[in-house]
């Protein structure tokens, strides 16, 4: 198995993508191509853009394989300036309070833009 992992090339991965559409099967694991967004990712990103209009960077990723059970959010906004990390995360949680009820987990990464 180790030898197989070492010789797996981008050509092999491309072939898997062609066969599976928007998913890649690699050593028994299914990974989604990040060039397309799920409906949940789009919905959450839209809500966060509305709540944090000054966000300079926003990325929402469904890390549950596309089923919407767990998301990872990276958001950088000047609206977090002067707030501790826990306060920043509370703001994100508050913005997504209705959606969080349907999730099994949420990873939040916040930052203030460097100027």
Automatic annotation (TrEMBL):
Domain of life (superkingdom): Eukaryota
Alphabetized UniProt keyword annotations: Mitochondrion
Keyword set includes Phosphoprotein: no
Subcellular location: Mitochondrion
Gene3D superfamilies named in the record: BolA-like (3.30.300.90)
Xref: SUPFAM superfamilies: BolA-like (SSF82657)
Family matches, as Pfam families: BolA
A cellular-component GO term for this protein: mitochondrial matrix
TM ranges: none
Database matches in PANTHER family: BOLA-LIKE PROTEIN 3 (PTHR46188)
Family (UniProt): Belongs to the BolA/IbaG family.
Subunit structure: Interacts with NFU1.
Function: Acts as a mitochondrial iron-sulfur (Fe-S) cluster assembly factor that facilitates (Fe-S) cluster insertion into a subset of mitochondrial proteins. Probably acts together with NFU1.
Name assigned to this protein: BolA-like protein 3
Species this protein is from: Menidia menidia
Organism lineage: Eukaryota, Metazoa, Chordata, Craniata, Vertebrata
């Amino acid at each position: 198995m180790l030898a197989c992992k070492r010789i797996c090339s981008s050509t092999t991965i491309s072939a898997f993508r062609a066969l599976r559409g928007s998913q890649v099967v690699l050593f028994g694991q299914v990974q989604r191509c990040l060039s397309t967004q799920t409906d949940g990712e789009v919905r959450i990103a839209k809500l966060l853009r509305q709540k944090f209009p000054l966000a300079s960077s926003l990325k929402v990723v469904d890390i549950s394989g596309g089923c919407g059970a767990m998301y990872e959010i990276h958001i950088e906004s000047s609206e977090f300036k002067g707030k501790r990390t826990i306060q920043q995360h509370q703001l994100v949680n508050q913005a997504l309070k209705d959606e969080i009820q349907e999730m099994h987990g949420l990873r939040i990464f916040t930052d203030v833009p460097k100027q």
